[in-house]
Design brief:
Blueprint lengths: L13 E5 L4 H16 L8 E6 L5 H16 L5 H7 L3 E5 L5 H18 L5 E5 L6 H10 L11 E5 L7 H14 L5 E3 L7 H12 L12 E9 L8 H26 L8 H13 L6 H7 E4 L1 E5 L5 E2 L17 E7 L9 E7 L6 E8 L21 E7 L3 E10 L5 E10 H4 L9 H10 L8 H20 L8 E3 L5 H8 L10
Parallel strand pairs: 1-2, 1-4, 2-3, 4-5, 5-6, 7-12, 9-17
Antiparallel strand pairs: 7-13, 8-11, 9-10, 11-12, 13-14, 14-15, 15-16
Bound molecules: NADP nicotinamide-adenine-dinucleotide phosphate (NAP).
NADP nicotinamide-adenine-dinucleotide phosphate (NAP) binds next to helix 1.
Length: about 500
């Protein structure tokens, strides 16, 4: 039987979205707010104020939303619910760089509070290009909109990317801290909001059988893969600046690693969990230039064929991409963690575009059984696979365990079989949630567990900075070095082959 989770309604607040006419707001934030409302997790006194430079009033904004929202929410859209809630969406046009906009916003918010009988709590969501994060936080501070008083809270959600290197991340943290205290800052990583990433914590820390074997004595290696079949699509200008290392490794894969690798926290409080995550990130062996050359692989897709389908062009032939672009669309890393738990266990991270499939998963590759008593009965020890636990983040969220079973028959043969748990089979909500629902809800409730703290951001940048430096100093000579529709450059396979391992390919 399917089970639904029951949670309390989040406290009332005005959610102010900077970048209200932008892509993220339409595709993710508004559907997330709608889904929260449909699950009755939003107070009836929650209002939304959108700000953007497009000139229009609240009425025109609502009309726009009326036309678009059903396609963005997709299945599960309920017109009646929308009609009942759209009146709580407001719009103010303004320029993020203009101090006057913030004075107007202050007045506007007081109006909205009065109209909605809201208690004066504000959540500022910066769904804007990253160059505005510092400016908006500073202007909010100057306008007195970051100050908390009389039990009224002020929180700010910062989208990714958080900086583009160590120095800019430090600068941005310093700028934010001039207007907001750390407890008011929620740095988003929608990966941490995903059910399955949280389920890794639930799986590890609520099952007595898991933790005892979650260490170097039983685990041979860990693989974290986040790949997609799409190319750069319409993100050319962003991607040319960012590349896969900044876009995916710093933001998402290290977040997943921290959940897989952390020690059990003392409690389920935000800081207890984030303290443990930061400890494991700090324990990753730093890269020096030599290790960058041996343990960091970069790639860029060439033309090719996706599955049995279309021929697609090379990254450098995509619109808006330089013909000699050095941006990487693929990264594979081998990380080693200096801790008692993980000594000697490689963590392999891999992300790429134009791969044969779109999926995100964590593979826990267990060691072989210590004594192969079947060795004599079978041809080779390799024929008996070791146990593999796969934590699937997307699509088909779930967990599967591969283990060996005897093949029925008179001969003694062993084959790998799989036990599967699919979220959809047990729980109701997993279809609709994008991660943003959880993160917005948690922020309204003041729960920062799934958001990144300043020190976490800086430690991640410290780790990748030497890679950025070496890659900049040594421009890639072999790009493009993998065909679209393949699993990336050969060097990524060699990275594991050197250790006697290979990447798991999702079945
Ligand atoms: N889109 C996604 O799926 C996604 C996913 C993860 C993270 N993010 C992050 O979310 C943030 C927003 O991304 P997005 O794709 O939604 O960007 P976007 O579509 O460019 O939206 C930004 C909005 O802000 C407006 N704007 C720009 N400068 C302004 C100014 N000076 N004053 C007032 N309004 C201004 C833009 O107007 P114009 O269009 O006129 O410039 C646009 O409507 C980025 O940090 C991005 O990295 C996005």
């Amino acid at each position: 039987m399917k089970q639904a989770s029951h949670t309390l309604t989040a406290p009332a607040a005005v959610i102010v979205i900077f970048g209200a006419a932008g892509d993220l707001t339409k595709r993710k934030l508004l559907p997330a707010l709608f889904n929260l409302a449909s699950q009755k997790l939003l107070s009836s006194k929650v209002a939304m104020v959108g700000i953007d430079r497009v000139e229009m009033d609240s009425e025109a904004y609502r009309q726009n939303l009326n036309q678009e929202i059903s396609s963005f929410v997709g299945k599960g859209f309920d017109q009646k619910l929308w009609d009942a809630n759209v009146g709580r969406a407001y719009y103010m046009s303004g320029d993020f760089r203009n101090a006057e906009s913030y004075k107007q916003l202050k007045e506007f918010l007081l109006e909205v509070d009065r109209e909605q009988e809201a208690p004066g709590n504000y959540l500022f969501y910066l769904a804007t290009p990253p160059s505005f994060f510092g400016v908006i936080a500073t202007e909010l501070g100057k306008a007195g909109l970051s100050q908390e008083s009389d039990g009224q809270w002020r929180r700010i959600i910062i989208e990714k990317p958080f900086g583009r290197d160590l120095e800019s991340a430090r600068e941005l943290n310093a700028t934010l801290h001039r207007s907001f205290a750390e407890h008011q800052i929620y740095r988003i990583d929608h990966y941490l909001g995903k059910e399955t990433v949280q389920n890794i914590m639930a799986y590890r820390f609520s099952n007595g059988t898991v933790e005892p074997i979650w260490n170097h004595r039983y685990i041979d290696n860990v693989q974290i893969t986040v790949v997609e079949s799409l190319g750069v699509e319409d993100r050319a200008s962003y991607y040319e600046e960012a590349g896969a290392l900044r876009d995916m490794i710093v933001n998402h894969l290290l977040a997943v690693l921290s959940v897989v690798g952390m020690e059990p926290p003392n409690s389920f409080s935000a800081d207890a969990i984030r303290d443990e995550q930061i400890k494991v990130l700090r324990a990753i062996q730093p890269f020096d230039p030599q290790r960058v050359l041996s343990d960091a692989v970069r790639g860029q897709y060439g033309g090719g064929r996706m599955g049995k389908g279309d021929d697609v062009c090379a990254y450098r032939d995509e619109p808006g991409i330089a013909e000699d672009s050095p941006s990487e669309t693929f990264v594979a890393l081998k990380l080693m963690i200096d801790s008692w738990r993980w000594a000697g266990v490689p963590f392999y991270l891999r992300t790429g575009k134009r791969m044969p499939g779109r999926y995100s998963e964590v593979v826990i590759q267990y060691k072989h059984a210590p004594n192969m008593m079947f060795r004599g009965a079978l041809e080779r020890r390799k024929d008996i696979g070791s146990n593999q636990l796969v934590l699937r983040i997307q699509p088909n969220e779930g967990i599967s365990m591969e283990f060996n079973a005897k093949v029925p028959g008179t001969a003694f043969n062993v084959s790998q079989v799989r036990m599967d748990f699919d979220y959809d089979d047990y729980f109701d909500e997993s279809n609709t949630a994008s991660g943003y629902e959880t993160l917005i809800y948690d922020c309204l409730c003041g729960d920062a567990t799934l958001f990144k703290r300043a020190d976490n951001i800086e430690v991640c940048w410290e780790l990748v900075q030497p890679i950025l430096d070496v890659w900049k100093a040594l421009p890639p000579r072999s790009f493009p070095n993998y065909a679209s529709g393949s699993w990336g450059p050969e060097a990524a396979d060699e990275l594991l082959a050197r250790d006697g391992n290979d990447w798991r390919v999702a079945k």
